[in-house]
Amino acid sequence: MLTDIEIAQQAKMKKISEIAANLGIAEEETEPYGHYKAKLSQKLFNRLADKPDGKLILVTAINPTPAGEGKTTTSVGLCEAMNKIGKKSILALREPSLGPVFGIKGGAAGGGYSQVVPMEDINLHFTGDMHAITAANNLLAALMDNHIQQGNALGIDVRRILFKRCLDMNDRALRNCVIGMGGKVNGIPREDHFQITVASEIMAVLCLASDLDDLKKRLGNILVAYTYSGEPVFARDLKAVGAMTALLKDAVNPNLVQTLEGNPAIIHGGPFANIAHGCNSVRATKLALKLCDYTITEAGFGSDLGAEKFFDIKCRFAGLKPDCTVLVATIRALKYNGGVAKADLTKENVEALKKGIVNLGVHIENLRKFGVPVVVAINHFYTDTDAEIAIVREFCEKMGAKVAFSDVFLKGGEGGIELANAVVETIETTKSDYKPLYDEKLTIKEKLDIIAKEIYRADGVTYTAKADKAIKEIESLGLDRVPVCVAKTQYSLSDDPAKLGKPEGFNITVSDVRASAGAGFVVVYTGDVMTMPGLPKVPAADNIDVDADGKITGLF
Known about the structure:
With 556 residues, this protein is an alpha/beta fold. It is built from 20 helices and 25 strands. Helix 7 (129-149) crosses helix 8 and helix 7 runs antiparallel to helix 10.
């Protein structure tokens, strides 16, 4: 069987000019990056401003497991299938981060015969967006340290610097470090920290900005530190905004590529959902809605993370009204939630499936709380038995949820027609009544209490002394009446990754709370979630190579 990269490398791609022309995009509205990638310019946004939006479909999943659920693969396959049944559709996905590509998770370009291409480019440097975000982030950090070095006119307290440097790579050694150790001329010594680029506030700002002017305003609102007298210091106080925007002026424009079957895909922005807000850019999604009748987008990890943030943060800010949610699961993953070891997931186990399927039930219930109809997509594997399939169908029927089995990994769009028809029928027969879960004007603790009880099914929330102090400080600055973005493990509904299925009798523990004033939300840290991941014992990088002709192998 061919690997993902071998399948992608055999694809006969269309020139990106043809993909754009099929969408009605003029040549002057694109900025090509080679033959198969292009940026979509502000001219296109301006021309389509008054065009009505198409339908919006969110793809999310149950809690992920080591077996994998195939959310991106399902998203790509659904787009292929929608176009096959005559529904003009487009993808709006996130950009992969280099950290997972060389680490453990892998890329984010789909898999098998449901991929976006050029796969190697998308998973590596792509059009340079990640590098631009990294550069803008670290420029702000450098300007702040230079300000301190050159006399510190603002009186920045080096013990109370909030803004971190970033790197688009998993590097645990940089989580906590000391800088400025080379003597007087090389900077003031202080403790510093790195986070992965996709967890940075600059990433969130780029993904939530509506245009360049909005981007500049949000960049200026980034809270970077406090003074010795306790006053806040923002990026605008350091006169950093213009230069940061200059670095991001191209990165703010979405990227156009294609699927293996030659359908359009807009890929832009890449915040993680376990440590950030987990959605592609507002600009990409809004543009896609103007270009096609159906836009298929996704939110990272399970619906307790990515989908909740999609509904409560992205849709709220962007004025989006989703028409349908597709909830991806696998029978293997449901058995894993029922206590089966990864090595035994290919064996039939009806009892474990019945036990673990409660995780699917919670996600269906949770998604309905946002008023958007749900279709369950079972990413089908050849090891799924008739008895197991019958259990899933019966369970979904009892919950009143449509269920469709998907074979897009092996068959591409053809394998997603059942799912595509289910989605179209749902949109045409069930009216969406989207609403956020909470009022953003509630207090931080009130909002988090609602998320914890309604989505995670916790008994309540426990706050450390550090978190309590941080909340009071944020409230004193008037930065608290905004949505909350919870950093939490993706593997469980709780904040303990070992608690699978439907955990009960637990509290969520909040260790810290920080204002992302530029992004427009408050970040709540729970459990042991880190914003700079580490590499595994055997990184994926070990298997990646390039031959004398420049052909990459081992990427996936």
